[in-house]
Design a protein that fits this description.
The complex is a heterodimer. By secondary structure, chain A is mostly helical. Chain A has 5 helices and no strands. Chain B has helices at residues 3-30, 37-56, 68-81, 85-98, 100-128. Classes of the chains: A mainly alpha, B mainly alpha. At the A-B interface, helix 1, helix 2, helix 3, helix 4 and helix 5 of A face helix 1, helix 2, helix 3, helix 4 and helix 5 of B.
Chain lengths: 145, 129
């Protein structure tokens, strides 16, 4: 329990600081499109998919999944800034409303794809290392949940 | 951006993430259905809080560091508390169990209710003046 508290705290702190650095590095677009938040959210969703799949395959421990998935990915991604940024943009102008709607849709679609890519990424690399298990190539959506 | 800002963001992000994990655990003990209620409630409450605090303290949505409030609380605690990644993983899991329509509905409902909560938070703060 104390162990998990430390893992989640440290991971969350790292993730949030990574998000802050992402905001500094990713340029603001002229139309106010929040590209920085989108980048942080997509990297985090990919990372969560990756560590979830690795944990399921027992490549990494539960502690590692806690640190990276719940901590780092959870701290790096944000829903509050995503939702609030969208409504501020939306209520600013008609052009803003168009940009905000595009932002929301593209975030949801790309985020969903990023999880799946993360989940599959491990499968592909594992298939390469263990020949003969290529079957799973053909059923990319057959997650064992 | 100063080292102090980074410290506030890290401290807030760690605390917010812990709060998310604890809240998810408590909700998970009481609810056992397929709909990801934990993440949903976490995200909606976090969106309400960011709307409320931003308007109350007149913080622009693009100002995310510089003071303990926007670095520590808005970027740190609320950013760490809410999660976009778990929402998407929940959606993929839901799609595996129940199909694409419930998964898409969950994502759209999260965004719509989250935006509504953020707007409501802002309205409440304005009403308080």
């Amino acid at each position: 329990m104390v162990n998990i508290v430390i893992l989640v705290f440290v991971g969350g702190a790292l993730g949030a600081m990574l998000r802050e650095f992402t905001m500094l590095m990713v340029p603001n677009l002229v139309d106010n499109f929040p590209l920085d938040i989108l980048v942080a959210n997509l990297v985090a969703t990919f990372l969560l998919g990756l560590v979830t799949a690795l944990h399921r395959r027992q490549v990494v421990s539960e502690d590692a999944e806690m640190l990276v998935g719940t901590g780092i990915a959870g701290g790096l991604s944000t829903f509050s800034s995503f939702a609030y940024g969208a409504i501020v943009l939306m209520s600013a102008s008609t052009a803003g409303a168009v940009v905000a709607s595009f932002y929301v849709v593209i975030s949801l679609v790309l985020g969903y794809i990023a999880v799946i890519v993360g989940l599959r990424r491990t499968r592909l690399s594992m298939n390469r290392s263990s020949a003969g298990k290529r079957r799973s190539w053909k059923q990319p959506f057959a997650f064992d949940m | 951006m100063t080292p102090l800002d980074v410290m506030w963001v890290g401290l807030g992000g760690g605390l917010g993430s812990l709060l998310r994990w604890l809240t998810g655990r408590v909700i998970g003990e009481h609810y056992h259905g397929d709909f990801p209620v934990g993440t949903f409630l976490i995200n909606v409450s976090g969106a309400f809080a960011i709307g409320y605090l931003s308007v109350l303290f007149k913080v622009d949505w693009r100002d995310r560091y510089g003071t303990a409030l926007n670095a520590g609380v808005l970027t740190g605690v609320l950013g760490g508390y809410t999660t976009f990644s778990s929402m998407q993983l929940d959606a993929v899991k839901l799609a595996g169990k129940r199909g694409g329509v419930p998964a898409a509905s969950y994502l759209l409902l999260s965004v719509l209710v989250g935006q509504l909560a953020a707007a409501l938070g802002g309205t409440l703060a304005r009403a308080q003046g």
